[in-house]
Amino acid sequence: MASFSDQLDRIVELGDQPPKRIVSLVPSQTELLADLGLKDRVVGVTKFCVHPKSWRKEKTIIGGTKSLRMETIRQLQPDLIIANQEENDRDQVLALAEEFPVWVSKVVDLDSALSMILAIGKMTETMPEAEQLVVDTKRGFRQLSQATLRSCLYLIWRNPYMAAGGDTFINHMLRCSGFLNVLASENRYPELTDDQILSLNPEVILLSSEPFPFKEKHTQELSILCPNADVRLVDGEMFSWYGSRLLLAASYFRNLRSDL
């Protein structure tokens, strides 16, 4: 048996051979598995696993990230399930862990994201690919200019407005891309009223494409509320996906800053 520690310091026991029936409960980690060359070894993904697009037809859909179809997963007989502390329901993950090897990530910043990539590479015996992903990602983020930080509000939801707080991966990506989160002292995803947004007086308001699909009409609403702010739509995957999507994030951040 091979033993591995996950990012919650749990010991996960795998067989003597690398896992051949993998179920991914997290979209960004599903994309990572594809980029590690594990197409033939992934058997189940969530309905939100949109990258690679073809997998939604080729793999078994096991429900949503927080509403898993437990019996469907059991029927797949996975020899490795990959989950995340924040994105998955704790009770469902614990129930699965009683029957199958479940490796749980906890990603809060770039370093823990890169550690997750290497850990999955080690478990699946794709270390050369994982190490190259890490090298390329580090290179991209080193090349980001150290421009003066601009105060920023990053909204993820509407009615009510919800924003990224300081203890989120999004907050770390904001800092990497040259923004100072006006809610850095807040936890998780606080709700905000119009008056609270106005009082925060951010220089930049970023409207994420996910989980709420902000559109151009919403930038107009926020521009009226905060006429002094630069309001932009942004690709939420670049700020919140912590797998191989990071390869594209640094370039995206650089272009975003140059446009502001």
Descriptive keywords:
260 residues, alpha/beta, Rossmann fold, 2 domains, 6-stranded mixed sheet, 5-stranded parallel sheet
Condensed summary:
The protein is an alpha/beta fold and 260 residues long. Helix content is 39%, strand content 22%. The protein is built from eleven helices and 15 strands.
Number of DSSP-assigned strands: 15
The portion of residues assigned to helices is 25-40%
Silhouette: globular
Oligomer: single chain
Radius of gyration: 19 Å
The CATH architecture of the largest domain: 3-Layer(aba) Sandwich
Mean pLDDT, as a whole number? 96
Strand content: 15-25%
Q: Number of helical segments?
A: 11
Helical/strand content category: alpha/beta
The CATH superfamily name of the largest domain is Nitrogenase molybdenum iron protein domain
Task: Please describe what this structure looks like.
By secondary structure, the protein is an alpha/beta fold. The strands form 4 sheets. Strands 10, 11, 12, 13, 14 and 15 form a 6-stranded mixed sheet that branches. Strands 5-4-3-8-9 form a 5-stranded parallel sheet, with helices on both faces. Strands 1-2 form a two-stranded antiparallel ribbon. The protein folds into 2 domains: 139 residues, Nitrogenase molybdenum iron protein domain (Rossmann fold, 3-Layer(aba) Sandwich); 110 residues, Nitrogenase molybdenum iron protein domain (Rossmann fold), CATH 3.40.50.1980. The mean pLDDT is 96. The chain is built from 11 helices and 15 strands.
